Amino acid sequence: xxxxxxxxxxxxxxxxxxxxxxxxxxxxxxxxxxxxxxxxxxxxxxxxxxxxxxxxxxxxxxxxxxxxxxxxxxxxxxxxxxxxxxxxxxxxxxxxxxxxxxxxxxxxxxxxxxxxxxxxxxxxxxxxxxxxxxxxxxxxxxxxxxxxxxxxxxxxxxxxxxxxxxxxxxxxxxxxxxxxxxxxxxxxxxxxxxxxxxxxxxxxxxxxxxxxxxxxxxxxxxxxxxxxxxxxxxxxxxxxxxxxxxxxxxxxxxxxxxxxxxxxxxxxxxxxxxxxxxxxxxxxxxxxxxxxxxxxxxxxxxxxxxxxxxxxxxxxxxxxxxxxxxxxxxxxxxxxxxxxxxxxxxxxxxxxxxxxxxxxxxxxxxxxxxxxxxxxxxxxxxxxxxxxxxxxxxxxxxxxxxxxxxxxxxxxxxxxxxxxxxxxxxxxxxxxxxxxxxxxxxxxxxxxxxxxxxxxxxxxxxxxxxxxxxxxxxxxxxxxx
Length: 481
Ligand SMILES: NC(=O)C1=CN([C@@H]2O[C@H](COP(=O)(O)OP(=O)(O)OC[C@H]3O[C@@H](n4cnc5c(N)ncnc54)[C@H](OP(=O)(O)O)[C@@H]3O)[C@@H](O)[C@H]2O)C=CC1
Ligand SMILES: O=C(O)CCC(=O)C(=O)O
Prior knowledge:
The protein is α/β, with parallel strands linked by helices. It has helices spanning 40-59, 62-78, 80-91, 95-115, 154-165, 179-191, 206-215, 228-240, 263-275, 295-308, 327-342, 376-379, 395-403, 418-427, 465-469; strands at residues 3-5, 7-9, 12-14, 18-24, 27-37, 121-124, 131-139, 142-146, 169-173, 199-201, 221-225, 244-248, 253-257, 285-291, 346-349, 353-356, 359-363, 366-369, 386-392, 407-408, 410-414, 432-435, 451-452, 470-478. The chain folds into 2 domains: 3-249 and 454-477, Aldehyde Dehydrogenase, Chain A, domain 1, CATH 3.40.605.10; 253-435, Aldehyde Dehydrogenase, Chain A, domain 2, CATH 3.40.309. It has a 7-stranded mixed β-sheet with strand order 15-18-19-14-13-21-22, with helices on both faces. A 5-stranded parallel β-sheet has the order 10-9-8-11-12, sandwiched between helices. A 3-stranded mixed β-sheet has the order 1-5-4, with helices on one face.
């Protein structure tokens, strides 16, 4: 029997206005779940529910909020295999990646549970003898959380867990393509004892419920991860309505391979960055800038590795690359593969969409060379398993090429030279820098975010999350004579 999914608002599962099928991208004829999609009215109710629950949640002692997050982590950990499996079935990343991502959500919940025991303010010396002067962080209020499909449990966890830990209430709109994983995360938090109204789930289309979640007078802040087009439009609207807003968006992340690099490491890490999760990561490697001296050997080895990785059903244990998430995404990536040819590119591996046993939205790991640095394929986010190879004559030219896009999310360098590694870390325009590691993959206890067009300039995760989800209040107390 097909699972039916509903929005969760003010402590009740609520029917929406029409049904939508949640399909398995490896077997698009399989309906993983059926979603009752919310319309704008239900989204507005969700905001009101979050507002009504705010006073009590904010007054709940922070360590008690942390206890609920810790319990949710425990429950999610018990369910990690089944949640990971459902994540694979609706999103298409391999089972190992899906279970890994679910474990990451567990760790994130635990981390923010721990944060509720950390100091929440500072005392200051006052210029007056009788004044006790301190500043403390308070919750922002009602937060709209709008998340993408590519990390359907880790990204929501790294937004919702700090929002709740610091005393905010939440209205969460996951991407339409991944409602089942969203329900699993909500269920773990409810089973852990989260009170009604503190977290509200709106299963609706961004184009239909998005406006309410951004402009509603009772929304105080919006945190978003997704495309630049939607993110920037949402930012303008949010600012116009006086809301705090945080955006994490696209990348065109470079991996620079210098002539002295350990090629075994470089080839493996570049392939991981470019092709795991079928390249559908904002941190994926999509430009590989290689010093000319090693270009022939590097490209031959990378192409051989790309061709050796098994493309297939993501539930099969030896699959390295699964399908793209949807038919739309397949069309988008396929059109970039065609564009690459029109722009003079030559494929050393892949370059085409395919099916497995006649079905699924697959694209073979693809490496394209002979492109101009300014070409569309070398400049725009593709969000598929496609890496553009660009030669460089020197470290300086490689860094200049790496910086020559509007994005600035993550970047890798492969070298044994510590001085050049330090120079790269300083000169590269990216929010995350990796030396001898793939450009994707993040630890949850450190700040994450991009420079230039990749973000709104704010940072998520680690202690940095506190900046967005809290506001300072400064208190002056005078002792009376
Ligand atoms: N940086 C990243 O991590 C990601 C980048 N992308 C990039 O974006 C491209 C398109 O992917 P797509 O899923 O369409 O990304 P979107 O930016 O459209 O979606 C991200 C989230 O925003 C929601 N949304 C869409 N329109 C609105 C709106 N008007 N107001 C408020 N929320 C809205 C979506 O809802 P709904 O699902 O209902 O449309 C989803 O929850 C990809 O090919 C990739 O290049 C995509 C995902 C993640
Ligand atoms: O690289 C990662 O682990 C996370 C990437 C990410 O945040 C994204 O793709 O949206």
